[in-house]
What does this fold into?
Amino acid sequence: MKDSPIWIKAATGVLDIVECFFDNVYSNSLICVYGPTGSGKTALLQRIEKTFGGEKVLRVGVESLTQDLVSALESGNKTKFLHKYLDKSCLLIDNLWLLKNRKSTATEIISMLAKRIRGGGLTILTSDIPQQEWNEKNIMIADLLASAQSITLNPDV
It folds into this structure.
């Protein structure tokens, strides 16, 4: 059973948050960071990448991920795409909400994420859309996020 959501004021404790992601508690996990635009989601991913980066961390926006997927499908080289995103210890994906109306793209990305979750490693996603609203936007993403530890950045706390 997943833990209850964690509420965080974005302006404080960012390094502590980043370090907790790499504790054994969170290894082999799926985490989704929610919050309104400007709450610090992207800054948090940038800090994680900067602090723990190198060969083991990959940070990518949904737009770039989608472009990589389309290129792989067009060239018939989906294996290379999968290796790029499955072989990292930590995958950071920003702006998941951009998939809300892209059902076929979301299906492919969710398939890759499911393989990643089964294979281990830490995956951190960000979304402007709260978890409960995904049921109305894209049920496949809602199902994926139901298994995620959720963290909400709330600048008003």
In short: The chain has a mean pLDDT of 82. The radius of gyration is 15 Å. Strands lie at 6-8, 30-34, 57-61, 90-94, 122-127, 149-153. The first strand starts at residue 6 and ends at 8.
